[in-house]
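re: ur question from yesterday

yeah so i grabbed the chain u mentioned. its 321 aa long if i counted rite. heres the sequnce exactly as i have it in my notes:
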Amino acid sequence: MAMLPNPLPRLTDDLSGAALGLRLPPGRLVDTTCDGTWHEPLLWHADTPAGPGGWPEPAAARAVGLLPVLLESGEIPGMEDVATWELDPGAMSYPGHHDAEDVLAHAWPLCAEAADTDSDADADVSADADVSADRDDDTAEDADAGPADHDDDPADAEWDDELRDLVAPFGPAFPGLAPKLLTSAEAAAGRPDAVAAELTAALTGSGRLRDPRAALVYARRSADVPAAIGWTGPVNHEHDVARLCAVLRSWEDRFGLRVVALGFATLTATVAAPPTTVEEAEAVAAEHLSFCPDNITQGPGTLRAYAKSLVDEGVWTFWWD
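ran it thru and got these structure tokens back, copy pasting raw so excuse formatting
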């Protein structure tokens, strides 16, 4: 489905939003990136913190191609201005070009370690060339000895007790995507958006979000908002946030997720159909471990312990170190 043209440039001469049929509080457009000025505004955000009623009306904004999100300007002292967030839209691909399960499987703990090991090994290729030649001779001599014994698979050797404890009840391979919990009826009735509005009001009223500012972003769907503005919060985990947005898209479809807030390195989402049992929660927690390892490795320490916090929890928060 084709997108409407970016309406944000139309706010340049009228920040009230009247030209778009919106009623916006005082605010400003942001087009500053880590490489200078972007060719069009990336977002609009309010000048003052949002209260419980500060969530922009989703239907009105969506009608002109904009999606609401809150920006946590108080997350890090000195980084209150979104223009200092090192936004990098030019580095982002398109979320639709990535497969969520592939992204998560690639980041599963053992796979990530293996990738690092392969990278280190590549640097030593030239030094090992002579040794490899000798091994080729040995291989020829052993050709009649039958199939090789793979009991000492390096992957198994790397699978130590610490990793076992981290990912239990799962194993070395990514366990796959968790089952869909959002029903077709819930999706058709607009439950994900209704839950997002309700929980966001509660979040802004509780003080859980730090100095949140209402913002509007030109994006196809809620899951695409981080990539649309070139958000680099997870840069120490994933340089191309569009890959993570592919996972967020999958969570939209399976759990009714909506991205409701972004900080410098945090993402908060609401979920209309969260896991309701420990088994369901552990399957979801496996995805969270690949998506944002710091949530677990710098939190409860194990997938099992983290999963308990997901049961019946309608707000998911992610933080990257």
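noticed a couple things. The chain is about 35% helix and 15% strand. also Residues 191-206 form the longest helix (16 residues).
anyway ttyl
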